[in-house]
Amino acid sequence: MARTVDEVAHARRREEFLDAAQRLIGTKGYEEMSVRDVLDEASASRGAFYHYFGSKQDLLWALIDRTGETLLEMLRSAVEESGTDALARLRGYFKALAEVKLSQRALRNPTLRTWQSDGNVLTRQKVRTDIIERHTPLLAAIVRDGVAQGLFTAPHPEHTGRLLITLIQDLNEELTRLFLAFEAGEARADDVRHTVEAYSSAVQSVLGLPEGSVVIVEPSALLAWFDAASKRNGA
């Protein structure tokens, strides 16, 4: 019993370090964050930190791994709950991903701006690569099923799955840029709608689907997001 308690406490302490790092990356940026910052945030000793992680970079990789796996499990569940129809499964994936991204953007302003800062270049690139590698198999399986069901036209499902998640990541980065531009009065809601329409059209083209088959982000959710930003800015 004592061993079980120790294992639980050990895992909990590791999670506390990861939670502390996540908060600091959101407020200071990875490059500006020091191990001492993490120790202070987690109320821990240097010895305790190095018991779990060999370096600050190891801490970052562990945080990205935790975040990536949590997101992937949510999306897997959404896909499974969408039934066996491949198009419905793809829509379920997009819907769940959009909900996660839009809920994260509720944090906005300093956190989002810090995320886009030069201090998080390494982190953003690592997250992008991690997401592409994690999500390619799930999307490739959906594409493979869609081809078998006669819904999609894609001779190479594995490569198509990778292309889809790459497009999604590109869109996510573009929406983040546009959101910050919108808050600064340098972009309009139409710019965002047209961007989403273009990427949705690209996905449909890749899969041989007619226009209107899929929407990566629902327009109503997107408009609510930008309307909220507009009200905060007094527009």
UniProtKB/TrEMBL annotation:
- DNA-binding residues: 34-53
Q: Which Pfam family, any one of them, does this sequence belong to?
A: TetR_N
**What lineage is this protein's organism placed in?**
Bacteria, Bacillati, Actinomycetota, Actinomycetes, Streptosporangiales
Q: Which UniProt keywords apply?
A: DNA-binding, Transcription, Transcription regulation
Q: Keyword Transcription regulation: yes or no?
A: yes
The entry's protein name is HTH tetR-type domain-containing protein
Q: Which organism is it from?
A: Nocardiopsis sinuspersici
Name any one GO molecular function.
DNA binding
The HTH tetR-type domain extends over 11-71
